[in-house]
Amino acid sequence: MKKAVAAAAVLGAIAAAIALATYAGPRGEPAASARDYPLEVGLRWTYRGAGNVAVVRRIDRAVEIDGRRYFEMTFVLPILGRRAIPMRHAPEGVVTVQEGRERLLVRLPLAKGDRWTVDLPSEKEVAECTVLGEEEIEFAGRKGAATKVEVRRRGRDAGPVSIDTEWYAPGVGLVRMEVTHGIRATFVLESFERAK
Hints:
By secondary structure, this protein is mainly beta. It has one helix at 2-20; strands at residues 44-48, 54-65, 68-77, 81-90, 93-98, 101-107, 115-118, 125-139, 142-155, 158-169, 173-179, 185-193. It has 1 helix and 12 strands, in the order αββββββββββββ.
């Protein structure tokens, strides 16, 4: 029973991490581009973790919300199922829309020392994000440069803080995540595919 509860907690934290890694912001022409974080119909990211657990993110369609074009990012999570989040590029990075307002998910371009807050009304947690710098890591069967971001999550009613880490690679987006909610779990990008 304890293992099932811990597994559910980890998968919930993974869902939150992925959600945070996929939102964006305000009006105007986007400064962020596919060079920083690709968003287009037909993209598919597959991550693999311990026990051969897979997490899949994909963009199957574009949707219009309040006159703006968003890409609907669908997450397929073990046990938790599917979740769809609208995302688009904006001047400050990648944003989503909730309660009629755009909300920042990832500030782009990622620069060491940059900080931002991800506060989505639909989530139980708020995340304080800090860019730590660039590192060489392995993902998708190769070694490459990725920018490391620390994500400090806390409940809306205070409580304990969990510290997750995410890495983003140019032209790919999220390539690795370490989740620390309950137990530690690491998911690394196994494949990144474009529409054929």
